[in-house]
Batch of 2 targets.
Target 1
Amino acid sequence: MALPMPEDKSESPAERASQLRHQIEQANYNYHVLDNPTISDGEYDALLRELRGIEAQFPELRSEESPTMRVGGQVGRGFRPVRHPRPMLSLGNVFNHEELNAWFERLHRLLPGTPLDFVLEPKIDGLAIALTYERGGFRLGATRGNGLEGEDVTANLRTVKDVPQRLQTGPIPQTVEVRGEIYLSIEGFERLNARRAEEGQALFANPRNAAAGSLRQLDPQITAQRPLCLFAYQIGYAIGLEVETHWQALDLIRDWGFPVNPLARHLESEEEVWEYTQWLQDERDRLGYEIDGAVIKVNSVALQEELGFVGRDPRWAMAYKFPARQATTRLLDIQVNVGRTGTINPFAVLEPVTIGGVVVRLATLHNEGDIRRKDIRIGDRVIVQRAGDVIPQVVKPIVEDRTGSEEVYQLPDRCPACGTPIVRPDGEAMARCPNPRCPAQRYRWIEHFVSEPAMDIRGLGERLVQELLEHELIRDPTDLYDLTEEKLLSLPGIKEKSANNLLTSIQRSKSRPLPHVIFALGIRYVGLQTAELLAHAFRSLDALRDAPVDTLEAVEGIGRKTAESIVEWTATDDNRAILERLKAAGVTSDVGHLDGGEEGPVSGLTFLLTGKLESLTRGQAETRLKDLGARIAPGMSKGVDYLVAGAEPGSKLEKARKLGTAVRDESWLALLLETGRLPE
Ligand code: IVH
């Protein structure tokens, strides 16, 4: 922090202000990032008050970066407390088969001779919320807090697309409270952290903390930019509604329009429960979001009531917890690679260690600031964490184990790929290689350009890209459109068939919808969501190229930094030439059927997907349907034109049959996505 240094002695106002800022930042970090407050609200307010006092008295000590400059000066500490009409309980834990059996035995002792069936759900690793609806309208959203009292985060929850503003179909009770878990997908978490790393902000330790931090933003606009999701799993209470079983409750919740986890199962026997916990544990890495166990619930509501509670835990539900996914190992070295926009990304080389069945050798370290903040040194024993398919992260060093021989890390002076001196622009956290022709940056750019959310060019693996670059068949992504069979076959090891497949794929990419083309340009801070906003606002690459900063910033959801980064990109001759060449190659340069509902081949039609798809995820299928102009329904209702059912479709399928909705399978969907037309 650049503070004017005082001319006089020790306890100067400048020093005290700096000390206070440090304490407040630390408290914010503990509260928001670690989700682990270290001081009381009262103490926090006292620190802020003192700092405001000093800044009022010595205006020269004010700084844009001071925590007093933030919204109300108390980030995230301004939510109204809400008392939960029914306490939000926690769950008892079991960790193995024996402990699970002991729970079953306890149930049988309490309910002798009563046959039991169960519902098993993944235990989502996010944060619990309660959503109250009155006469079908969303009225109140609260965090769990201490279980008795939470925070009113209604305004923020209104920005979460999975939270229905109105209950949709089925019986609508006078009042109902639906409970569920707010979470971030692993991809959403990684994107958020990557962006924070670039902007030099403190990183979230895991998706759960990121979700908690995002929900507790005082400014709902910030929450709106975070890709928060919801799985609803419980009716907290309802006035004017009776349900007999939890399985029925889940059906109702789904009909009301909430996402219910598709892996929830109704199971008839204790063996099935055990087997399903094991199946889920194996599936864990493939889910795309973090789960830390399975929740097993007695299905009958009457029996739930009879079983009641012990302390804060219900007797009728139990969490089976999966093994932890942290381990300690030694940090052997820190190396760097070069990102698409020239960022120098440090990563950890570890003594190999097995975490949750996977051998981990490398872990990300984000940026130099993060290494310093955590005080990670080469030679340290460190805690490493893995989540889903995320690149493992170094959580922190084990300081007590230090021997004194550990080394503080220094970033190299030169780019490891091209030798250009590394720069660190003022106020930026990431050191960068400033050479736009750096081969490492070129490589990453092409990798980004062909990726699935960008131009979706298949058949261009890492080796082939390297070879194309080495043989100078391509220098930038637009050169892909000049590739011919002859040129490709001149490379060692490429067969005619794969060359042709690649050329077809390149050809097909020319009709990618505008948002994906904008995303593919690889402009700093322009992720797919931002690219969508830009495509809607400007409707062509030409209009985007010519937009000044103010016009860009006027687009809702585009901030100053992003606007400036876009102009910086479109202002350079190299990049303007890229846009011209894309146009010349015939790449979509203006909007076709962006709005959904009008011009697309399936526009006006509403789809719903259920069950597991083989060839792509449901999210991917939904995005591609939307690109074709289709709408995606929040749940099964009369408004749905086609239900696409994958494997293990569940209750949506039954409902569709009852409603007489057209049901189609994955091969039909594949044909639709391939041809852009409704198959016969
Ligand atoms: S049911 C009495 N179902 O786990 C039932 N909880 O340790 C209480 N959680 O605070 C909750 N997934 O945040 C339930 N499918 C699920 C869940 C779930 C995650 C969380 C929830 C709760 C905590 C209890």
Target 2
Amino acid sequence: MILLKHYGTKNITFSNGNPDMGKRVKKAIFPVAGLGTRFLPATKALSKEMFPVVDKPLIQYALEEAKEAGIEEYIFVTGRSKSTLQDHFGRSYELEKILIDNNKSELVEEIKSWVPDPSQISYVRQQKALGLGHAVWCARNNIGDEPFAVLLADDLVLSNPGCLAQMMEVYAEVKGNVVAIEEVLMEKVNRYGVLDIESEDGVVVKAKGLVEKPNPEVAPSNLSIIGRYILQPDVFRKLDNQEKGAGNEVQLTDAIAETLNDIPFHGFKFAGKRFDCGSRLGYLEANLAYALERPSMKDDILTIINKYS
Ligand code: UTP
């Protein structure tokens, strides 16, 4: 029996008592090297993780979510267009000087408040977009032999506390590998990694299997993985094989599935709303939802929505 602070008491059987599998998570990988073909032409020269939702790039939301969850080191796996992202998380002395000269020093302080210390950030290049599993594998030397988080910034989660902070609370209890999950329509399961459920206890689901992009007729459930993972380093050993799966890509879910016999694996039904910002509709909806969250914008946004409805 475990007690989750935000989600009540749950009966969970630990499948492995190895204390190493519950080590504190201090590092996070942010893969940003995807081609973003669903969002061309916008993604031709700009990675979608740099798209703003209202006024903040997706990648900054992800970094802030990680920081709130206790992450201390941020590892970006970048592709061909990394310079804007690197500029975003670096200091801009020219901009700061102009703002100060224009009596806007409060904006300088605001920017400084979220730019991480250089010692906390590193960049790894994925030379070719061979799949999410390959992108994560590219960061293996930066992670070493400790558990880590993976955040896909194009999955934006509106929640308080943030999705990863919620997952950390569950991870502290169940250990091993933990992924955030949500229910999707059965006809859409072929877009996601889907859990094969062993037992379900409220918001925490113990899985005995994991299938990437199954056909709805053979899908083991409609519980799909979203872009938040807490993983043990053992997954790198599986990714070493570089085996290609669905879509002819190296799939992270396939490597996690290979560790199922040795490492407990749980899905967590997070509290919050996820937006698929890798798709046009998901991205537009996120902009509306986040603008409506801002008291200074809400009334104007509702007026605009009424105008077009
Ligand atoms: P997606 O499945 O959304 O793929 O990647 P994509 O290539 O970015 O976009 P589409 O489907 O062509 O429109 C999920 C996450 O994994 C990263 C992406 O940047 C995104 O954060 N990714 C994917 C990589 O870093 N490298 C890859 O080779 C593939």
